[in-house]
Protein 1
Amino acid sequence: MRRLLLVVLALLIPMSAISAPAADLSSLSLGVAPFEANAPPGARVPDVATLLADRLGTLGLENVVGPQALNASSQPDVSAELVRGWAAKAKVDAIVVGRTTRIGDQLSVDVRVRSGATGDTVKTLVRRVTNPADLAASVDALANDVLAAARPLAEPPQLPAAAAKRSSNKRKTPFGFKGWDSDRPMSIQSESLDALREGGKRRMIFTGKVKVIQGNLTIRCDRLVAFYPADTNQPDRLTCSGNVRLQQGDQKARCEEVVYDRAADLLTCQGNAVFEEDGNELHGALIEIDLAAETMRVTGGARVLIRSGEKKRKLQQGGDR
C-alpha cells in the first residue's frame, strides 16, 4: 500500500542522477498533453504527464505548457490537424502526447513527440518503470529524450524587444547585479531530486551540487526547493540553502539562504550575506537585490569594505585580506 501511494502521489521520489541537456534550449517551447491512463479496475496510475512537464520546466526551455493549461485531450492517437491546433493556440514548437499503462506493479510509459507545425510524429519513446522508486529517474531520462527529439523543431533564437531595449540602455550602479534579462529561461541541475505533491500544490526538491542558470546569473547551493503555482509547469519561487553562492560576471554574493522570487525579479539573501564587486564588499544580515531595477537594499548591521588598488591586486592574486 505504501508503495502504491508513492507512485500515485509522486511523493518524495529519490533520483540518483539528474541529467541536463547539453545544448542551449532557450528558443524551444513544448506543450505536454494529459496522458491516457490504462490500468486494471481499482488500480491507480500516476500523473506522469505533469511530472514530465514540471521537469521540462527546469531544463532551460523558453516555455512549457503543461496538461492543466494546454486544454488538450488525453488520447495519444489524435489527428495531425488537432495537434497543429493545440500547438498554434499554445504557441509551442512541439506537442508531447502519451499513454501510461499499469501492468501489475510495473508501469509502461509510451510517449510521442509531435511537430507543432505539421502534427507528424517526430519520435516515439518508451520507458518501463519496474520499481515505484525509479519513477522520477525514468521521468528525468524521458525529459531529456524528449528534448533531444524536439530540439530541431525550435525556432531560431531571437532577442525579445524588451531585452533588446534593456541591453541598449544599461546603467552602472555602485552595487547590484547588472544587465539582467528576465526573459531568459532557467535550468536547474543537481545530484538528486524529490517530487512532492500535496493538495494540488507541487514542489521539486533538488539536493547535492545544485546549480541554477538563468541568463548570466548562476546560483549554487546544497539544497533547492522549487515551488510551482497551480496554473504553470515552471517554478515561480526558489529557496536555496547551504553554501549559497551567486554570480553574475565579476559580481558575487554569498549567504546562508536565498529566496528567488521570479515574478518580482527579486533575490533575498539572508544570514551573513556578503556582496562582492571589484574587490569591495557589502555586508549585512539581509541583502535584497532587485534584478530588474539593478538596485540593492541592506538591513541588519550594514557595512561596506572599500579596498585600495594594491589590496585588490593582492586579493585577485590570492593574498591575505
Protein 2
Amino acid sequence: MLALDDVSVAYGKVETVRGVSLAIPAGSIVTVIGANGAGKTTLLNAAMGLLPSRGRVAFDGVSLDGMAIEERVGLGLALVPERRELFGSMTVADNLALGAFRRPAAERALALEQVYARFPRLREREAQLAGTLSGGERQMLAMGRALMRRPRLLMLDEPSLGLAPLIVRDIFEIIVGLKATGVSILLVEQNARAALQVADHAYVMELGEITAEGPASRLAADPRIVESYLGLGGVES
C-alpha cells in the first residue's frame, strides 16, 4: 500500500535519513524500530509530506511526489505524531470533530460513533478539555482524531511514549484491533518488544539507514536484535 524507494531526508547539509526503502502491504502492521535519533520520526514526516525528501514515495501505486499534505490525507493516509498535537483548550468532542471537518455531517456522526465504540473513555470525557486528559487518554484522542477520517493507512509515531505499562498494553490491543478492521498500520516504536509482538514485518533503523528487516517473529529471535533492543520493556502476552 505504501512504498518508499531510496528515500533520503536532509536538514541543511546533514542527511538524517539515507537511502531507505520499505513497503507496507495492505492489511498489515509494519514496524520500524530503533533507538532515539535513528531517523524514524523523520521518515514518517517525509512520507506524510511534512518534510521534503529525495527518492520515491507511492501510496497504492500513486506517486506522492509533489503532493500536498491535504491531498495525501484525501487518499487515505493519517499520521498520529509523537507529541499528539491536540488542541488542549478545546473539548474531546471538538478535537474529534476537527479530524473529519470536511466530511458530510452523516459521515462525521457515523465516524464519531465508531471512535467512541473503540475508545469508550473518550465518550465519557467528550465535554472535557483535551489539555486536562491523562497521557493515555491523550493518546487515545490523538488516534481517535486520525480515525475520524477513516484512513486506509495509519502511521503511528511512538504511541507508547510516556505511558504506564498497563496503558501501553491497551494501546497495542487497539492497534491489533484496527488491523482486524482492514486498516494498514506503519508503527514507529522505541519499545521494540511491544512492537515486534504485534507486527507482521519489521525494519530496524540505525543512524538513518535500514540495517535489518524481516518477519517480526524472526527479528524478535535474532540474537543481535535481542541484545540491542529487547531490553526496552514490553507488553505482557
Protein 3
Amino acid sequence: MTDHVKVEVEAGVMTITLARPEKKNALSNAMYGVLADSLEAAEKDPAIRVVVFQADGDSFTAGNDLQDFAAQASGAFTGERHVGRFLKALAHATRPLVAAVQGQAVGVGTTMLLHCDLVYVSPDARLSTPFVNLALVPEAASSWLLPARVGHARAYAMFALGEAVDGATAVAWGLANGSAELGDLRTRARAAADQLAKRPLGALTITKRLMRDAEKIAELMDAEGALFGERLKTAEAREAFMAFMERRPPDFTKVG
C-alpha cells in the first residue's frame, strides 16, 4: 500500500519501521493500513512472538498527516479510514509490543506508546498530545490510559496545553522504560525484543491479558473516535487546519 512503512521479520521479531523521514514520519491513511495489516498478521502467525516499532530520520512521528485531517474536515476524503483498524489492533494485541522513540512523537505517536509493553526513548525525544491545539480530543483510549499512567494534572497539561515531555521526564513519569543515546536506541529495543522472544509466549500472553482490559480499551476508543470525528467537522477544527496551512496562529475567538 505504501513504501513509507517497512516490515521485516527475523528470529521471531517483527520490526515495523516508519520510513517517511522527509515528512517527520507523519502518518497517512495508507501508512495506517500497513500498520494495521502488520499487527493483524502478527496475531495470526505463531512464528512472530514480538513486534517492534521504530522510525527512520530524526523523529518517531509527527502524528497524523494534517492534510489527511483537513481532507476529512472538508468532506473531501473518501474510502476506508485505517486508523481505527490500527488502534483496535493495538487494543487487542496479544504479542509484546516494543518501541524505540527518537525526536518528536506527536499525538498518536505518543498515545500508541501507551499500548506498548516496553518503550525506550532517546534523550532528544519529545512526547506530546496537543489535540486541543487542533480543536480535537484525545484518542487511542488515551483519555483513560494517560491519566492512569502519569496522573490527572500531568495528563491534562499534555492534552489541553500541548506540553511536551522530554526523554528523561518520560522515563521518570513511567511513559518509558529507559533511555538510550540515538546510536544505541534501536539496539536497546531489539535486545529487549530478543529477550521477550525467548520467553514462553503463553505466559507472556496471559500476563498481558491480566494487566490490560482490552474490551474496555476498545470501547473507549469507539467513544473517543465518535467525538473525534464530530470535532473534525467543527468550525474550530476548520480554523485550526486553515491556520496550519496558512502558517499562522489560529484564532478560535472568531469561531467560539
